[in-house]
Amino acid sequence: MALFPIAVVVGSFRKDSFNASLAAALEKLFPADFSFIQVRIDDLPLYNQDDDANPCAQVRRLKAEIVGAKGVLFFTPEYNRSIPGVLKNALDHASRPYGQSVWNGKPAGVLGVSVSPVGTATAQQHLRNILAYLNMPTLGQPEVFIHHKDGLYDAHGNIGDASQKFLQGWVDAYVAWVKKHA
Amino acid sequence: MALFPIAVVVGSFRKDSFNASLAAALEKLFPADFSFIQVRIDDLPLYNQDDDANPCAQVRRLKAEIVGAKGVLFFTPEYNRSIPGVLKNALDHASRPYGQSVWNGKPAGVLGVSVSPVGTATAQQHLRNILAYLNMPTLGQPEVFIHHKDGLYDAHGNIGDASQKFLQGWVDAYVAWVKKHA
Amino acid sequence: MALFPIAVVVGSFRKDSFNASLAAALEKLFPADFSFIQVRIDDLPLYNQDDDANPCAQVRRLKAEIVGAKGVLFFTPEYNRSIPGVLKNALDHASRPYGQSVWNGKPAGVLGVSVSPVGTATAQQHLRNILAYLNMPTLGQPEVFIHHKDGLYDAHGNIGDASQKFLQGWVDAYVAWVKKHA
Amino acid sequence: MALFPIAVVVGSFRKDSFNASLAAALEKLFPADFSFIQVRIDDLPLYNQDDDANPCAQVRRLKAEIVGAKGVLFFTPEYNRSIPGVLKNALDHASRPYGQSVWNGKPAGVLGVSVSPVGTATAQQHLRNILAYLNMPTLGQPEVFIHHKDGLYDAHGNIGDASQKFLQGWVDAYVAWVKKHA
After folding, report:
1. 3-state class of A140 per DSSP?
2. Per-residue pLDDT tens for B104-115?
3. Is C80 part of the contact surface with chain B (CB cutoff 8 Å)?
4. Which residues contact B102 (CB under 8 A, 6 or more apart)?
5. Residue of D nearest to B131 (CA)
6. Could you count the other beta carbons within 10 Å of the beta carbon of residue C73?
């Protein structure tokens, strides 16, 4: 029985998204009392404040999924040294109307994978500013800037040996963080 | 005859957007050899890298409008201490595919109006990081953090006396900036 | 008997520092089981990694004071849209040598007062990035961007009526934050 | 005869600073009409606004050196995901008193070398915010995040083959940038 459902938000819709693959592999490292909700954000409209009074079904679904979660994991690519517009659009939707943000208080984890050696460090720097404003306690260390390369996964899509210990350590820290803030 | 067409990108779609009003009023302060293209971004799809090879008509229109401009003005609200997702989505679209960004080299100006006394300073801080990466020379000073309040406009929608001198100075600086970088 | 000694770091050395005044007034709003260590940073040398092996007495004192604290309050002015160099210098000293940072895990609060209506929002945005890296759980909301003006304090240097309720609410939130992370 | 003296500011005082080495090697890639002023910042006091009226000799020297330059190169390490306090301290000194900043209008270049694969990307993100406020036109692309490793230099301390073409391209872009803004 899952006591800690975690919302998983991936900032890329690409069919072979590196970040979606990382999310799928990382989930396997969690203990049995954690479960995962794959939050769909690719069918949201572009945010328009005039719609605040009558949010569409997709926005209501997004908000309900976050409300039901005990924590949120963000897997973000880096586009133009910041987070993707599509991820920010989802963050904006679920933060409105003013005073009715559903992000408030949810313990967050931030991860990113990229083909660039710089990883997603600058995107994460912006994301952390946004999450602080949204009042989401966000795990500080360890940082997760994954460089996509051969050997990241084994033949079964599990995290490969080179990164397994590091990412298991991250999961353990996030699990404790969620329990502290739940 | 307009020699300096400027693309105007507003980060809010709200019918009574403060930033759209500011854009309309500011344009009147420019000299006669500047003209303006109101860039529509509210009908863009959410960016998906899988569509890079076959961009839709709206994305092609966006890119063509930026290509035809001698400069770009960004009017941004602040959502959750960053720029709106909808503005970042437009920035992402026109920056792709990799190596085919149309923003490259276009002299930029950054402005924002808000009901908050903090203005849009933190949103602009993120936006400037993005524009630096997009290789858009961006006017530094003066900064434009407009506080929306009575008297910002006169009865005809022109900039009111309290802000007229400051904003005319900004326009003059931006005009010189565009001519230097054109 | 104080169970929760809190280190107070002020980013300005000015004799009549607005941030030092705010620190002094804010301390009075805490419950009796909290006490305060005024951390001196104006006599630190400029950080040089070559000195890591033999830190001077002032650096050793700084690190010992942070080690002894159950939390850290940062009161920061904004210089050039970031935190003062003198505050970053103190952060750098106590974070070294690599792996021996004393900031790790200390629950932090961020505040700032300024004569500018923009307050210290952009400085705080940078500071929050630094504190995330230093693995300091940092209170998200409410944000404290104080505008220095008449009536901020009463005749006795206490927080005046206009800001009292807001700042008492902030203190209550920070007290709970420290107890959660202690 | 040098027509374009460039001030070089290095954010590390370490005897074997990677950034100082990069500065020395990069200077050799400039054309003959550029010369370099090594700006000393390790003997500056910690900035205190109370000293604005009577700056010490070191601060006056710093300001005079920047005044005499046609551009400024910043070589920054990354400390705690931002620029070093010692670099920010120098930026603060030469920006004061209010209205008498000597940085104003000087075309800037930003570079950094690090042993980390993430390079100095997040430090540079903060530095670019500061330089925008200081009204320094700053070269956007290419970005220079150098990974310190074997082969970066040849036996004579010149840039090695692997990075030579990239850095020569950067120098050529910066030279054109300085001439445009001089």
Report:
1. coil
2. 999 999 999 999
3. no
4. B63, B66, B67, B94, B95
5. D140
6. 24
What's the ipTM?
0.97
Q: Mind listing the pLDDT tens digit for each residue in B65-114?
A: 999 999 999 999 999 999 999 999 999 999 999 999 999 999 999 999 99
Q: Which of residues 113-152 of C touch A (CB under 8 A)?
A: 125, 128-129, 131-138, 140-141, 143
Chain B residue with the nearest C-alpha to that of A77? B49
| Residue B96 half-sphere exposure toward CB, CA atoms < 13 A | 21
Rounded Cα distance, A104 and A135, in Å: 5
Q: How far apart (Å, rounded) are the C-alpha atoms in residues A177 and B61?
A: 46
pTM of this prediction?
0.97
- Is-contact C122 C82, C-beta < 8 A? yes
Interface of B with D in 90-109 (CB under 8 A): 104
Is B46 close to A91, i.e. CB distance below 8 A?
no
Right CATH for B4-181 from 3.40.50.720, 3.40.50.150, 3.40.980.10, 3.40.50.360 = 3.40.50.360
In C4-159, where do the E strands start and end?
A: 4-10, 34-38, 71-75, 108-114, 145-147
Mutate to test the interface with D, among B72, B141, B144, B180 (most CBs of D within 10 A): B141
* Partners of residue B112 on adjacent β-strands: B145
Is residue B109 within a helix (H) or strand (E), and if so which, with residue range? strand B108-114
Residues of D in contact with B129 (CB under 8 A): 125, 128-129
3 state DSSP class of B64: helix
CA B36/CA B9 separation, integer angstroms: 10
Alpha carbon of B133: minimum distance to chain D alpha carbons (Å): 6
